[in-house]
Amino acid sequence: MNYKKDSNDLLVPNVTYKIDPAEIESIEANSIAQEIGFESGDSIISINGKKPRDLIDYQILISDEILEISVLDKNLEIHNISIEKDQDANLGINFKDALFDSIKQCNNRCPFCFIDQQPSGKRKSLYVKDDDYRLSFLYGSYLTLTNLKKEDWERISSQKLSPLFISVHATDPATREKLLKNKKAGVIIDQIAWFERNSIQIHAQIVVCPDINDGKILEKSIFELAEYYKKTAKTVLSVAIVPVGLTKFRPENDGLKSITSDYAIKTIQQVEKIQASLQISHGTRFCWLSDEWYLIAGKNLPSYKSYENMPQESNGVGSIRSFLKTLSEKTKNLPKKIKEPKNISWIVGKLVYEALIPTVKKLNLIDGLKINLYGLPSIYWGQEQVVTGLLTGEDLINGLKNKDLGEAIYIPSIMLKINTDLFLDDKNIKEVENQLNTKIHVLDDSNDIIDTLIGKSNNTDIIKNA
Ligand code: SF4
Hints:
Blueprint: E1 24-27, H1 32-36, E2 43-47, H2 55-61, E3 66-72, E4 78-84, E5 93-95, H3 133-139, H4 150-158, E6 164-167, H5 173-180, H6 188-197, E7 202-208, H7 215-226, E8 236-243, H8 261-282, E9 287-289, H9 291-297, H10 319-330, E10 334-349, H11 350-363, E11 367-376, H12 393-400, E12 408-412, H13 429-436, E13 439-443, H14 448-454, E14 459-463
Parallel strand pairs: 6-7, 7-8, 8-9, 10-11, 10-12, 12-13
Antiparallel strand pairs: 1-5, 2-3, 3-4, 10-14
Helix pairs in contact: 7-8, 8-9, 10-11, 12-13
């Protein structure tokens, strides 16, 4: 830490402090924190005498105008700093982790758990089964509510942690207990009623496992959840219906069946009928099938507007439709040619390959641009039809060796662990680049591919509506 202000520093040598690590990863340029002299590697101990447990506490604590912050620097020196700022001013601090205490882990044993369907011997963090309501609030990860203590419920209510994302799977108590292999799992409707009483909204998810929570049970679950979408209190805002994903690493005799094309067609018919009925009774479709259902069934994706306000896009519900819409808008006015010729490869999961062919054909009409679109299966997971986000480094190496890759390959960031260069199988970008003898470009948002390849600076002779 490098202070530019007086701070009543207290030097305590040779003492190791056992504190929860609210460790600073970076400081934003021109921020209050930079002006004061915070540095990456410093740790915040307390703000106005209170120890933040996570980003949620931190955001609440820094909303005061006057802050007394106790900071531990890399040399284990404690500094006490006073800051006066506008109430809504951020400090410009990015933390290493969102949780400064420990992550709340799951106490279920779902047979379809993707974490248990991985090979052994990978990095430890791949096997962490988080079920933490704070991550649900901050990042939209799904939680089951089976591990919440009294103080957690109190905190959700007092800090109004809303909306939360809940894995419901089935409202029928016995079915949910069976799916989660947890005797505490059967009270989901009581818990949703609690959310209603406490004005907390939720988005729900149902992972459909054939012959376990489908058919009548699925229908019952959707309609029971819809009872909590009232004119006066909209507690359950949406339901995402997702097909179970099975990998070759799952144990034998786990009682699970994979989703076939016929099964997907049947489920689409069932859910679309329910949507039509809810549209009449509730004024919303309320439940939506994830894109995978339509791709597995070989059916066209529903229209963009049928997803209403895309409440579960981050869960793969309507995300391809939304992506195609943006691509179509971005490719309305294409240049005739680009200044610097480019020959590159765009990598996606096999399941979405066909949907992107028309766009790539259109882009390849641009003089000087050649895009090789590759839709890869996942040999790693043992899935022929796979979504892009599940492709691993090994899949890229196996699927692309000896292929014409051009100058570089472009992959969407959803193939990598958030904020890292690691694929799901632990391989990093460098390893894959070395094996394929090419350069990898990561696209933050897949729509970036258009800007990256034919960005305005590269355009000549824009043709309207090409
Ligand atoms: S709740 Fe989630 S993390 Fe826990 S076992 Fe089930 S699927 Fe796995």
